[in-house]
Each structure stands twice: as structure tokens, then as C-alpha cells.
Write a structure and sequence with these properties.
Number of strands: 0
Low-confidence stretches: none
Number of helices: 6
Mean pLDDT: 94
Strand content: under 5%
Oligomer: single chain
Number of domains: 1
Order of helices and strands: HHHHHH
Largest sheet: none
Shape: globular
Distance between the termini: 18 Å
Structural class: mainly alpha
């Protein structure tokens, strides 16, 4: 594996689809699957969540997710397949993102349950994004 820095080799359609795939997963993950434990871990109520303006929250989330998809695509060879892409995303999520979240959460004194929810989403999202990028 090596990183290619030729932006012309990036499949931009795959990056956009990977971005929306992760975004949809986030809606499911932080919606029906883990909404209540996530809010409880942060001490938030539904009223507090509903008071937030969703446009900047979702806008920033799309931008960050798009950036992650672009960088992930730099790790995935242009002739990769779904399996190769998924494995890259999985190992980056589990082996890099999760440990650094663990470091932050340790110093912030956060609940390990929230680490499992957030790192689980990040790892699964990167796995799906990698699969999409590798497949295309």
C-alpha cells in the first residue's frame, strides 16, 4: 500500500457516493440505533438536541465526511476492489481513529460507552467508504 497524491487518479464519483453512504449510516447509527445511549452519555435531552440549528451541524458533518473520503481514497489504489478498499477503511478506523479517540476520551474523562458508539460508527463508516471507493 502506498499513498498516491495525484488528484486526477481519485474517482470523485466514488468519493461523493462514499460520503453519502457514511452520512446515511450516521443517520441510522445516531438515530434509531444509538440515539438514546448517545444522548445519555453526553447528558443531553431531546429538547436540547431539537433546539440546535441542523443546517450548520449537517453541513459541517458533510464537509468532514467528504474530507475523510478524499483522504481515504489516497490510500486505496485506483485498481483496488471492494475487499481491499473495505479492509483499508476498517484498519484505519479500528487501528488509527479508535485509539486516538481513546486517548482523547481518557484525558477528557469521557464514558467508554460513548467511545464504543463513536468509534464503532467511525470504523464502520470508513469500512463502507473504503468498500465504495475500492468497488468503483
Amino acid at each position: 500500500m502506498h499513498i498516491h497524491f495525484d488528484l486526477n487518479q481519485i474517482n470523485w464519483l466514488a468519493v461523493v457516493i462514499a460520503t453519502f453512504t457514511a452520512f446515511i449510516l450516521g443517520g441510522i447509527w445516531y438515530g434509531p440505533l444509538f440515539n438514546k445511549p448517545w444522548m445519555k452519555a453526553f447528558g443531553l435531552t431531546e429538547d436540547e438536541i431539537n433546539k440546535r440549528n441542523p443546517a450548520p451541524v449537517f453541513g459541517k458533518a458533510i464537509i468532514w465526511t467528504f474530507l475523510a473520503a478524499v483522504v481515504l481514497s489516497l490510500f486505496i489504489e485506483p485498481d483496488a476492489d471492494l475487499h481491499y478498499g473495505a479492509m483499508n477503511g476498517f484498519f484505519i478506523g479500528l487501528g488509527i481513529v479508535t485509539p486516538f479517540m481513546g486517548v482523547h476520551y481518557s484525558f477528557e474523562g469521557r464514558n467508554w460507552k460513548i467511545l464504543a458508539i463513536n468509534a464503532g460508527y467511525s470504523t464502520l463508516a470508513l469500512t463502507l467508504m473504503g468498500a465504495v471507493i475500492g468497488w468503483f
